[in-house]
């Protein structure tokens, strides 16, 4: 519902000239800028922690976040904001990355918290959440997709570069939805800790995936998928 035709009232008339030309009306609602979305998976964390607050980054995880922050800074882009999951491991990853991107505002959200987005197809034997979890988490993660992944607002004049620090399940689901692939296939992808996934959303709504789970900037002995 963000394409120009969905944003105008075709029955509305101009008092002086009658029905406006459709083409000229559409132009006022066409996006002009491209959005660059960088989806960052959090770094390695302590799997032994029982509660979220105990699942802090490991020493290696902190190294990974430093490497990711350095990589993002090296791109030479003017990042507009960092939106991050409110879970501990994503928050700590964001704190480290943001040191390499001074001045970029940070926004925390519960929408990007980890969860079970949709029952995977084919199913896997080692991971079987309760059915109710798909309904609860799935609705939230779908809301995150609809809220954050869309073409630029018509008022946006320049291209934007935004960072989202969150979780593997969330990123994989978002990639499937953004590319209009069956979302049930989200578990067929694998993402390393601290990896960078780059989506591009053009003004006409077309989406391109430039990188998926890139960790080529990390030494091999620093790469993990926990």
Class based on secondary structure composition and strand pairing: alpha/beta
Cα-atom radius of gyration: 20 Å
Which CATH first-tier class of the largest domain would you pick?
Answer: Alpha Beta
Number of domains: 2
Family: Belongs to the phosphoglycerate mutase family. BPG-dependent PGAM subfamily.
Main location: mitochondrion
GO molecular function, one term: protein serine/threonine phosphatase activity
EC number: 3.1.3.16
Characterise this structure.
Its main location: mitochondrion. The structure is a single chain. With about 230 residues, the protein is of the alpha/beta class. The protein has helices at about 5, 20-25, 60-75, 90-100, 130-150, 170-180, and strands at about 35-40, 80-85, 105-110, 160-165, 195-200, 205-215. Strands 3-2-4-1-5-6 form a 6-stranded mixed sheet, with helices on both faces. The model has no long low-confidence stretch (mean pLDDT about 95).
Task: Give a short synopsis of this structure.
It comes from Oreotrochilus melanogaster. This protein is α/β, with parallel strands linked by helices and 226 residues long.
Write the layout of secondary structure elements.
Blueprint lengths: L3 H4 L14 H6 L7 E7 L17 H16 L6 E5 L2 H12 L5 E5 L21 H18 L11 E7 L1 H11 L17 E6 L5 E8 L12
Parallel strand pairs: 1-4, 2-3, 2-4
Antiparallel strand pairs: 1-5, 5-6
């Amino acid at each position: 519902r963000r394409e120009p035709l969905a944003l105008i009232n075709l029955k509305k008339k101009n008092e002086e000239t009658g029905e406006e030309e459709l083409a000229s009306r559409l132009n006022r609602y066409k996006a002009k800028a491209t959005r660059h979305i960088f989806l960052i998976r959090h770094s390695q964390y302590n799997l032994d922690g029982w509660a979220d607050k105990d699942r802090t980054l490991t020493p290696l995880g902190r190294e990974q976040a430093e490497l990711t922050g350095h990589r993002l800074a090296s791109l030479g882009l003017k990042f507009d904001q960092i939106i991050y999951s409110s879970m501990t491991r994503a928050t700590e990853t964001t704190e480290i990355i943001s040191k390499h991107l001074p001045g970029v505002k940070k926004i925390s959200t519960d929408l990007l918290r980890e969860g079970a987005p949709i029952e995977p197809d084919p199913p896997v034997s080692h991971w079987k959440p309760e059915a109710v979890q798909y309904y609860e988490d799935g609705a939230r993660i779908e809301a995150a997709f609809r809220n954050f992944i869309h073409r630029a607002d018509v008022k946006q004049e320049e291209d934007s570069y935004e960072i989202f620090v969150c979780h593997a399940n969330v990123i994989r689901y978002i990639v499937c939805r953004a590319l209009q692939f069956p979302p049930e296939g989200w578990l067929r992808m694998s993402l390393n800790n601290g990896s960078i996934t780059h989506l591009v959303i053009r003004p006409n709504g077309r989406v391109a995936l430039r990188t998926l789970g890139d960790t080529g900037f990390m030494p091999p002995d620093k790469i993990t998928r926990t």
